[in-house]
């Protein structure tokens, strides 16, 4: 087995939060508010429910095959050839795709909002290198890194609380203004983000108590959903539905508004810190899924030789895949990539695998 | 173990070097902009005027004496087709990197505001430097003149204007709030108005003819239709606007003394709230506005004994009447004369009648001008200060 480390359930929850949240907090508010306007927070609640269903599906599937990752049990369910094909699809079209997308978004945010003079490639290489170093040292190291820095994400709560002075509850009214359709429609993007919980299927075998996987998944989704709702509410309550959707990063702008007694202001550095540290972990998790999955697909005993080449591929794809400029990035990721990834990799294939497993009677009884 | 600690310490001290020099800008190399002004010139170009802080003079700037002390700010301007173009021409005159992050105010000249704010504000929202919390204001005249004024109390006139706005005596708008009002169909923007006022200067012996100084003064609000300035409200009408918008946080109401109507009584406002309740039956549109206010009686010119429950009741009803009259005045002007909903009645309507709003929103200003508005004021006087009656109150 390429991975020998074990992590406990708390670490897993924190890892899953860091895996979903950093990019979600910055990109989702603008996308959802554009369609659902002041009801965007309801969209996120719908998405959270959908996320719980996806989590349930993935964990049930995974628990039927104790000690096996997504790549191993798909081979067992579908047979060697088909299983390997599914595995390769996941590597190339899901983990690498999202991973490189995150690397790109990481750079895009820093260049757009903070350091315009720095070439984006610097950020892309740096984040991949740091994440690669953690991945090379194994899952446990990645988790401990995350545990060390996730309190910074907690600082966001303080920023949200400080910004209450600039909030007006009226900006959320009327509820259900545009009707149900836009709410459901704009729930698609956050659902995809929360659906990244599929990655948990790579980690369940290394939980010290795999039986708690359901709890891990539910807790991760609920906490992430809460933070996501809070960030959307923050932006909406400060800017109102007409303005929020027009910022590229509404949460970032919302923290710029905080000014307590003309003294405590310019708190956006907290968002940037959360983004940089969380971004590293997020890249790390997908990076890890790619190298571990590839090692298992190819039948390698150790995944470490793959870390460097995969890192190179991640950086290259982050530039090649997601459009040439920020306009294309903002268009492709939420409107083209998201629905595809959601339907095929987060719901479609896991559901198919579960059905086939049930029909063929593979795997133990799900707990 | 010791070796590990040594390595860790070494790494820790490396942090100091890792900060790096990419995009490094020392304070002596940046031009910190305190205030920004935009004018529309006679030959149809945008003139960008900025007030740049002179950090070296900031420390000593406030000290008295020394006569002709240099002001701690420098005002420069440049013209261009867009703000960015003007900024680049400006960069040819300013020998430092232009830094927007500390700009306190964004002031538009009257001509620029009439031409449309759309040509101005985008730059300030798109760029990373300027903050969303910049105070937004319009001057009756040229923005350049506002920035060229001086301030006795603040370091620069831009800061003075910012502080004046923050005192909440007039209607204060941040640039993000202006953008929000502009984007909403249920309210038309209003913006703080400022003007240049000439003041004398304290003079001592040997200074018989002190130079005339110019300072910034708040002056009502500018009323917009979409992004174009159409009219002004004076200070008096601005109070009415604030009552209807529920933005009265400070101020006083002066009413005739109940027993001696020729003398006045002033009530200082403690807190107030305004509630707009729209009613719509498919044809008729009317609004019930409820204003709740609490205040302290702080001054009486009359000699009668006001410290009696029935007198306080009389004061309260006089106060309610005065506030209602003020609000009605501003309402009348907005509805009949200007024909724009500057109070956010549309937003209130939207919150209650979301389906009907879809039909009305595109002709909201006409609907608003036709609507009936009932204003009800409930006023309370809570405190009367440290005196009950005046010592000279005649005994009954």
Give a topology summary.
The complex is a heterodimer of chains A (367) and B (396).
Chain A: H1 9-36, H2 40-63, H3 70-78, H4 80-114, H5 120-136, H6 139-162, H7 180-185, H8 188-195, H9 200-203, H10 213-244, H11 250-257, E1 259-260, E2 264-265, H12 268-298, H13 307-320, H14 326-360
Antiparallel strand pairs in A: 1-2
Helix pairs in contact in A: 1-2, 1-6, 1-8, 1-10, 1-12, 2-8, 2-10, 2-14, 3-4, 4-5, 4-12, 4-13, 4-14, 5-12, 5-13, 6-12, 8-14, 10-11, 12-13
Chain B: H1 2-18, E1 30-40, E2 46-53, H2 55-61, E3 73-80, H3 83-91, E4 97-99, E5 105-108, H4 110-115, H5 118-126, E6 135-139, H6 143-148, H7 157-166, H8 175-183, E7 190-199, E8 213-225, E9 228-233, H9 235-245, E10 252-256, E11 264-280, E12 285-300, H10 309-338, H11 345-352, H12 354-360, H13 364-370, E13 372-383
Helix pairs in contact in B: 9-10, 11-12
Question: How does this structure look, described?
Answer:
The complex is a heterodimer of chains A (367) and B (396). Chain A is mainly alpha-helical and 367 residues long. Chain A has helices spanning 9-36, 40-63, 70-78, 80-114, 120-136, 139-162, 180-185, 188-195, 200-203, 213-244, 250-257, 268-298, 307-320, 326-360, and strands at residues 259-260, 264-265. A two-stranded antiparallel ribbon of chain A has the order 1-2. In chain B, helix 9 (235-245) crosses helix 10 (309-338) and helix 11 (345-352) packs across helix 12 (354-360). Chain B has helices at 2-18, 55-61, 83-91, 110-115, 118-126, 143-148, 157-166, 175-183, 235-245, 309-338, 345-352, 354-360, 364-370, and strands at 30-40, 46-53, 73-80, 97-99, 105-108, 135-139, 190-199, 213-225, 228-233, 252-256, 264-280, 285-300, 372-383. The N and C termini of chain B lie far apart (93 Å). Chain B is of the alpha/beta class and 396 residues long.
């Amino acid at each position: 087995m390429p991975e020998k480390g074990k992590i406990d359930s708390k670490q897993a929850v924190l890892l899953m939060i860091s895996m979903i949240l950093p990019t979600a907090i910055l990109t989702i508010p603008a996308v959802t508010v554009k369609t659902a306007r002041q009801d965007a927070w309801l969209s996120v609640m719908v998405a959270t429910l959908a996320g719980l269903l996806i989590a349930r599906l993935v964990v049930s599937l995974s628990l039927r095959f104790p000690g096996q990752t997504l790549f191993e049990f798909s081979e067992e369910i579908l047979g060697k050839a088909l299983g390997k094909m599914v595995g390769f699809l996941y590597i190339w079209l899901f983990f690498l795709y999202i991973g490189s997308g995150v690397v790109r978004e990481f750079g895009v945010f820093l260049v757009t909002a903070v350091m315009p003079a720095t070439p984006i490639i610097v950020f892309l290489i740096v984040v991949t290198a740091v994440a690669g170093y953690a991945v090379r040292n194994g899952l446990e190291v990645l988790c401990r890194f995350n545990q060390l820095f996730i309190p910074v994400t907690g600082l966001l709560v303080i920023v949200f609380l400080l910004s209450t002075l600039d909030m007006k509850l009226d900006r959320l009214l009327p509820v259900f203004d545009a009707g149900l359709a836009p709410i459901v429609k704009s729930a698609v993007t956050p659902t995809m983000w929360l659906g990244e919980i599929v990655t948990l299927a790579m980690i369940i075998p290394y939980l010290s108590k795999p039986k708690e996987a359901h709890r891990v998944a539910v807790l991760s989704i609920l906490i992430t959903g809460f933070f996501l709702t809070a960030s959307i509410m923050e932006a909406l309550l400060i800017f109102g539905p007409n303005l929020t959707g027009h910022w590229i990063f509404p949460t970032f702008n919302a923290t710029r508004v905080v000014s307590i007694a003309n003294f405590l202001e310019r708190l956006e550095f907290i968002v940037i810190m959360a983004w940089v540290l969380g971004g590293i972990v997020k890249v790390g998790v997908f990076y890890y899924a790619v190298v571990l999955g590839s090692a298992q697909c190819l039948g390698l005993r150790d995944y470490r030789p793959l870390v460097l080449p995969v890192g190179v591929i991640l950086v290259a794809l982050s530039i090649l895949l997601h459009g040439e400029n920020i306009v294309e990035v903002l268009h492709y990721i939420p409107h083209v990539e998201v629905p595809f990834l959601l339907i095929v990799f987060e719901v479609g294939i896991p559901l198919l695998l579960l059905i086939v497993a049930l029909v063929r009677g593979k795997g133990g009884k799900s707990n | 173990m010791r070796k590990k600690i040594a390595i860790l310490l070494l790494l820790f001290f490396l942090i100091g070097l890792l900060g790096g020099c990419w995009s490094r800008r020392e304070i002596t190399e940046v031009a910190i902009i305190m205030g920004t002004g935009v004018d529309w010139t006679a030959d149809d170009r945008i003139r960008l005027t900025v007030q740049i802080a002179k950090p070296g003079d900031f420390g000593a700037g406030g000290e008295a004496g020394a006569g002709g002390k240099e002001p701690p700010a420098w005002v420069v301007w440049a013209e261009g087709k867009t703000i960015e173009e003007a900024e680049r021409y400006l960069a040819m005159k300013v020998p430092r990197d232009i830094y927007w992050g500390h700009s306190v105010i964004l002031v538009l000249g009257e001509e620029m505001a009439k031409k449309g704010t759309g040509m101005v504000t985008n730059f300030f929202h798109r760029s990373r430097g300027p903050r969303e919390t910049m105070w937004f204001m319009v001057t009756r005249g040229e923005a350049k003149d506002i920035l060229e004024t001086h301030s006795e109390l603040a370091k620069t006139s831009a800061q003075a204007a910012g502080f004046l706005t923050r005192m909440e005596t007039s209607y204060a708008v941040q640039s993000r709030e202006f953008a929000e009002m502009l984007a909403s169909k249920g309210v038309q923007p209003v913006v703080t108005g400022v003007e240049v006022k000439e003041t004398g200067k304290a003079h001592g012996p040997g200074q018989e003819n002190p130079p005339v100084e110019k300072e910034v003064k708040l002056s009502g609000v500018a009323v917009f239709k979409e992004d174009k300035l159409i009219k002004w409200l004076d200070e008096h009408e601005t109070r009415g606007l604030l009552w209807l918008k529920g933005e009265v946080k400070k101020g006083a109401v002066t009413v005739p003394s109940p027993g001696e109507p020729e003398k006045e009584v002033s009530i200082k406002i403690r807190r107030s709230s305004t509630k707009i309740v729209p009613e719509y039956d498919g044809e008729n549109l009317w609004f019930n506005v409820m204003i709740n206010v609490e205040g302290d009686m702080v001054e009486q010119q009359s000699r009668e004994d006001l410290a009696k429950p029935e007198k306080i009741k009389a004061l309260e009803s006089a106060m309610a009447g005065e506030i209602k009259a003020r609000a009605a005045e501003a309402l009348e002007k907005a509805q009949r004369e200007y024909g724009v909903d500057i109070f956010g009645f549309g937003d209130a309507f939207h919150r209650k009648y979301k389906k009907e709003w879809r039909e009305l929103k595109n002709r909201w200003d006409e609907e608003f001008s036709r609507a009936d508005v009932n204003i009800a004021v409930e006023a309370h006087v809570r405190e009367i200060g440290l005196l009950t009656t005046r010592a000279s109150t005649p005994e009954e």
